[in-house]
Amino acid sequence: MPVLNRFLSSEFGRRLKVSEELLPTSVWTLSTYQQRTFTLELPELIKLVKLLWKSKHNLQGPKRRGVFENEDALSNIPGDGRVRGPTGVLSERRGSFPFIDFRLLNTTAHSGEIGTKKKVKRLLSFQRYFHASRLLRGIIPQTSLHLLDEDYLGQAAHMLSKVGTWNFDIFLFDRLTNGNSLVTLLCHLFNSHGLIHHFQLDMVKLYRFLVMVQEDYHSQNPYHNAVHAADVTQAMHCYLKEPKLSRYLTPLDIFLGLMAAAAHDVDHPGVNQPFLIKTKHHLASLYQNVSVLENHHWRSTVGMLRESGLLSHLPTETTQDIEQQLGSLILATDISRQNEFLGHFKSHLDSNDLSLEDAEHRHFMLQIALKCADICNPCRVWEMSKQWSERVCEEFYRQGDLESKFDLEVSPLCNQQIDTIPGIQIGFMTYIVEPLFEEWSRFTDNSALSEVMMSHLRKNKARWRHLRHKQHHREEDSSSLSLNEGVEGGGP
Ligand SMILES: [Zn+2]
After folding, report:
1. CATH for 153-475, among 3.40.50.720, 3.30.565.10, 1.10.1300.10, 3.40.50.300?
2. Fewer beta carbons below 10 Å: N end or C end of the chain?
3. How far does the centroid of ligand 1 lie from the alpha carbon of residue 231, in Å?
4. Mind telling me the catalytic residues?
């Protein structure tokens, strides 16, 4: 995995070590707490993390100095014109930023050598790109790191006390946490599940890792952004508490479930796999057109795990196992594999042969739980469900606009003129969501949560049907109106 090897660059490791040594003892002694049992309440946790950030920030000196240091660091990295602003500072640091080289579309089979060279160049560029992105983190003062506004601290903490309830409003939570819903939620869940203590995690490394993950989501994506990741993580937390599952889960299972949920769409470019393939995106070449996005989410997560050193104190076999299991969980979210997983799930339930003492069976149920969490939007209360629906359709339409702009065939569901939001949602609920959640309900023996979710699902579908009906009527009315106007206008 050459791309990942680059993350282990000695330069980056050294820099982190120096900055850690410089941290004031009042903060740095956090890691020493891990030798003992401790419970860190959220407000204390947030205060400590804020204190840490402030102290680190002060150590870096004036803001401008930080920027110039970046430029110095960048001057040693082979350039990639498309990502540099006029000052030489990277304006876009994403690994998968969907820069589409439309010249590649015209590459014919006869110009194979040139095409191959270009592909290799793009792959190398990807590595360089990623390396630069990692190298920069920790140098740039990141304004978004302010965790919680004092005024909102109480409200956010109050919300977290009800994090296990299904009507948890992740949009409100994101506003209250100043756009840091993912970091704040994960810090809280890791603490409340006892994972920090169990895995002897270093709070500073955990925080660093979570910020990396959150920042690698693209906030400009209407749907596939860090709030979606936080929403999936909150749903996953609810599913992990299901009595049928929870009594068998080990700390490692919970760790994997929450981590996979948080990182399952990291660095999502806001377009789908067919788009990446038809535009000859470097990620499609890198992963040979198979689960392109999911592979990228997984490999990016592994890269960040290694770079943050979060698990560096654990035995190699354990970290390798964690990395592999995270991959298997994240790859399960590939929607094109829906029927494969649904078939296995059904046959397990039909033959009643799931034995959750068995680690393999627990892993399978974590895959299913993550898949449910990923597509649970239609099972939420209408106000939230509707917002997610509008967001995902907006992302589809943006892809469609991009496709038509470059004379590419517009992908299914991406044509705003044909594919309406109610139509898309009803199809999604009927063919993807309902079949999976019916089986999930069966697995949970129709738990209270399953009942609530199925009830929302039915009501939401009825509302979309009603809206579609109204939309048809409006269209019919307007077409008959324009016909009448045409007749009147065309009259003698
Ligand atoms: Zn997702």
Report:
1. 1.10.1300.10
2. C
3. 9
4. 224
